[in-house]
Amino acid sequence: MSRHRIVRGMDYNDEYDGYDDVYGHSVDDDCVSPTDQQWLYDRARGQQSMSAFIKKNKNIEEEAEDDDEDDDDEAYQKARRDSENFQMPELDDIAQAKLSSCVDEVRSVVGDAVSERRIVETSMRFDYDIQKILDDILNEETNKKEKEKRPQKLKLNATTPATKSSTTPKPTPTKITLSAVKDARRGFDIASPKAPSSPNVSGRNTPVEGGDEAGRGSTTIFKVSKDQAQRNAQQLYEQERATQKSHIHMIVIGHVDAGKSTLMGHLLYDTGNVSQRVMHKHEQESKKLGKQSFMYAWVLDETGEERARGITMDVGQSRIETKTKIVTLLDAPGHKDFIPNMISGATQADVALLVVDATRGEFESGFELGGQTREHAILVRSLGVNQLGVVINKLDTVGWSKERFQEIVHKLKSFLKQAGFKESDVSFTPCSGLTGENLTKAAQEPALKAWYEGPNLLEVIEHFKVPERAIDRPLRMSVSDIYKGTGSGFCISGRIETGALCVNDKVLVGASREQAQVKSLSMDELTQTSVFAGDQVSVTLAGIDVNNITVGCIICDPQMPIPVTTRFQCRIIVFNVKVPITMGYPVLLHHQSLIEPAVVCKLTASIHKSTGEVVKKKPRCLGQNSCALVEVETSRPICIERYSDFKELGRIMLRVAGVTIAAGMVTKIR
Ligand SMILES: Nc1nc2c(ncn2[C@@H]2O[C@H](COP(=O)(O)OP(=O)(O)OP(=O)(O)O)[C@@H](O)[C@H]2O)c(=O)[nH]1
């Protein structure tokens, strides 16, 4: 009896409507089928693979673009640093050039502690005289008086005051050195956060009329403790974690029924992470329901509905310890209805295990006939996962056939290369999650032992490299869950993408820019005093209404806030579109755990996949397998980063009617 009776009972013609022309076509040994050409990147046709696309985008900032875009970029730089939707004044070309070089020069001295608006205003006021501008900015008292006297010449969006500084010693501009300025900045009397007039006033759940009134454009730099402001996160990390094992998050992906939960459940049991008593209970209970073959899957499929329906619906989480690592396992749902959950899980992952069912006909339906093997692999790669362990599972059903193993490896190798995985970062392991063959011990089954001498699954996991963590960057944490804690305040959970977070730290929450205080931190239910980039954590927050925080929002450093915007430019690769993308195309934007309705509001240019050169400015539409610069607009403000600034927060995915139509990287924030 199939575990997925209900799913299998579905009308797949309806279910996979829309996938026909993208997913489910074979990559043959030597050639790609004609329909695959629509979305796979065929080098033979002079087009670039996704790997090249992704590689290319790593240097996106350095790419030359057309003149219009250069102008836009100036605007972007300002908007990004100001962390608000600050509108640049309209100036003629010469004034614009003067202003730009002035802002850059001032910025190189004062760093990010001074708002963009402040620099622009001061630059214009002092007719681009650098010395006067620096003098003014670094002398708060003078600046304050000047500001009071002078009428507002620029039409600005936000109503909040610009950054204040009061106690900065007035340095002689000619003597300013970077270190001196840094010291001076530390002495700024940073304005305290303005208390919201009502808890809901600027909440993400309560969009406020007039956009910029919503507090997202605030230029206030919040006051934080000296300890928080001067913390050396890298040093703290080394002190606290030097003796601990490194930690990685591994997502387990693959087509529905490939055996992911069984494999992980068995692995957890074999590594001693599930007691015999619990396993016995699962065995007895699953037997009663005539579903004994799911007993290992039940370790991770914990909800009644998942067990009754026989499918994983949300990402199950558990952890194992290897000799050198702590590995958090994220068991993703395979069915296409739950891809949003799978995406949310994949955003937390460092590495992935792709499970395929070796059973004849089953591998083919997962890989070639509209299955999720392809989509999952492409999604995790687009989300930045570059190490992949492929598990050729259920090999017991084909008598441990070497030929079947090789056939599958061959087909997958070719596809994964085109999806952007480096050959050296991909491994293939024959296993049976049900029998436990080759999971934690070398192959025992004679038919497998006869031809396989490679690593078992645990060794594969052990050999994953730990990605570098951006610990010394400003704090960014994406919220994937919100729940009521045991004490006062409430809890959020999610991944620290960059930086560090300590108990008592002040943080800014999402697009509302409201401030909250960290009351407690925990990781795997253990209390912590500090957590770091790469950690999956629970945080108890105080000082903010629970209604003002939503899944998908970003928690950030009050002194280096994340940009908030409703419009950004991104470079996308189009996978599958029934109707070509035109201006006004409605999509669901996936960014970390955020799912937000959005519109493709501008088709800036079609670009060449290999060279990144503009092929056509302002194309009228984008078809399958095209690469383009587009602008996306959301109805509500969201927190987002440029890929070149924070690659962790600069990736997006566009989906329409349950189908992933494009993946991309944010290149500019408006
Ligand atoms: N013969 C055999 N059957 C297996 C193996 N692994 C899993 N199965 C069976 O395959 C079915 C599906 O297994 P699951 O572990 O639930 O599959 P899954 O990939 O987690 O399913 P979703 O998460 O819902 O996509 C169950 O009936 C399992 O007993 C295996 O190695 N060999």
UniProtKB/TrEMBL annotation:
CDD domains reported in the protein's UniProt record: EF1_alpha, HBS1-like_II, HBS1_C_III
Listed Acidic residues bias regions: 62-74
Catalytic function, reaction form: GTP + H2O = GDP + phosphate + H(+)
Span of domain Tr-type G: 245-475
Domain of life the protein comes from: Eukaryota
Sequence ranges of Polar residues compositional bias: 195-205
UniProt GO BP: regulation of translation; translation
Biased segments, Basic and acidic residues type: 75-84
Chief place where the protein resides: cytoplasm
A GO cellular component entry from the record: cytoplasm
Compositional bias per record (Low complexity), positions renumbered to this chain: 154-175
Entry keyword set: Cytoplasm, GTP-binding, Hydrolase, Nucleotide-binding, Phosphoprotein, Protein biosynthesis, Translation regulation
Keyword hit for Phosphoprotein: yes
Subcellular location: Cytoplasm
GO molecular function per UniProt: GTP binding; GTPase activity
Region named Disordered: 55-84, 143-175, 189-218
Family note: Belongs to the TRAFAC class translation factor GTPase superfamily. Classic translation factor GTPase family. EF-Tu/EF-1A subfamily.
Identification of the protein by name: Tr-type G domain-containing protein
Chain's gene name: Dvir\GJ12942
